[in-house]
């Protein structure tokens, strides 16, 4: 049975793009290669967030590493359309969500029993991830819709936090992230639900565009949440949103610079 899950085409999910058209070895060629940003950009982000990892939390590098795993898993899934590939892809996304929530979810949104304790909340997220992993293996057909739904509270919290933020560059990045996320969702829904329409105009490639747009939305949202974390819990470190390679160009690669890394929290008591 385990070997059956490795068999090409064993997944119940098949996206709009035609199979084995470009290559006899790759089922969905565009959907496979469109994951390139998941592989190329996280190593750059690890370098840009080196000080953040050193002075705020090393967990940021775990999130970037998990994005690479998402990209590799998605490439394997779309290249083979195997059930194992589908599960690896979806579980990698699930663990990105849980890791990001554990690290950066603002404490004001914690359940009351967590008592605004990040360690308790992180344990809750870990247990939830384990349970969700089991459910994903049990009913893989619903995984994609559940994961899409998890993006909604993420963006709702982002909207609420942007109303509090004072840095206009962070505010603008948050708005751009939201716009790109909406475009990504549009691509995913149309590829999934209206394949006949897009195939009729010879453009069954919206899922490939989903990969590009959702990566851009995901990493920029993570950057904004990383800023919120420092601003809310370690303001003495003085977070600053910057862009690489040219800071004045706001469509470059955003990252959070720590202006006062040696600062320690001083209690007013």
Automatic annotation (TrEMBL):
Main location group:
membrane
Q: Name the positions where Zn(2+) binds.
A: 78, 207, 211
Query: Could you list the residue ranges that cross the membrane?
Result: 29-49, 61-79, 91-109, 121-138, 144-161, 173-189, 209-230
What is one process in the GO biological process aspect for this record? ceramide catabolic process
Annotated Pfam families: Ceramidase
Cofactor (UniProt): Zn(2+)
Keyword field:
Calcium, Hydrolase, Lipid metabolism, Membrane, Metal-binding, Transmembrane, Transmembrane helix, Zinc
Write down the superkingdom of origin.
Eukaryota
**Location in the cell:** Membrane
Cross-referenced InterPro entries, in alphabetical order?
A: ACER
Which is one Gene Ontology cellular component term of this protein?
A: membrane
From the Swiss-Prot or TrEMBL record, what is one GO molecular function term? hydrolase activity, acting on carbon-nitrogen (but not peptide) bonds, in linear amides
EC numbers on record = 3.5.1.-
Membrane topology per record: Multi-pass membrane protein
The residues listed in the UniProt record as binding Ca(2+), with positions renumbered to this chain, are 14-15, 17, 19, 28
Its function, per the record, reads:
Hydrolyzes the sphingolipid ceramide into sphingosine and free fatty acid.
Q: Which family is this protein grouped under?
A: Belongs to the alkaline ceramidase family.
Listed name of the protein: Alkaline ceramidase
- The species this protein belongs to is Glossina brevipalpis
């Amino acid at each position: 049975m385990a070997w059956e899950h490795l068999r090409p085409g064993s997944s119940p999910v098949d996206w709009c793009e035609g199979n084995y058209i470009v290559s006899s070895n790759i089922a969905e060629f565009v959907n496979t290669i469109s994951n390139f940003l998941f592989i190329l950009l996280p190593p750059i982000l690890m370098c840009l967030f080196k000080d953040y990892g050193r002075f705020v939390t090393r967990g940021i590098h775990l999130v970037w590493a998990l994005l690479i795993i998402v990209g590799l898993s998605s490439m394997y899934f779309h290249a083979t359309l195997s059930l194992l590939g589908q599960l690896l892809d979806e579980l990698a996304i699930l663990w990105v969500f849980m890791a990001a929530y554990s690290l950066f979810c603002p404490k004001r949104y914690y359940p009351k029993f967590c008592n605004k304790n990040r360690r308790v909340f992180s344990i809750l997220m870990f247990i939830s991830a384990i349970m969700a992993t089991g459910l994903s293996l049990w009913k893989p057909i619903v995984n994609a819709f559940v994961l899409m739904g998890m993006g909604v509270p993420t963006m709702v919290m982002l909207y609420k936090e942007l109303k509090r933020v004072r840095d206009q560059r962070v505010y603008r990045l948050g708005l751009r992230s939201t716009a790109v996320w909406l475009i990504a969702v549009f691509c995913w829904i149309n590829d999934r639900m209206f394949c006949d329409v897009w195939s009729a105009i010879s453009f069954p490639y919206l899922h490939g565009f989903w990969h590009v747009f959702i990566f851009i939305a995901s990493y920029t949202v993570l950057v904004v949440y990383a800023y919120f974390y420092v601003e809310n819990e370690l303001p003495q470190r003085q977070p600053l949103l910057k862009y690489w390679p040219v800071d004045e160009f706001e469509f470059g690669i955003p990252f959070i610079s720590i202006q006062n890394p040696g600062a320690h929290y001083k209690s007013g008591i």
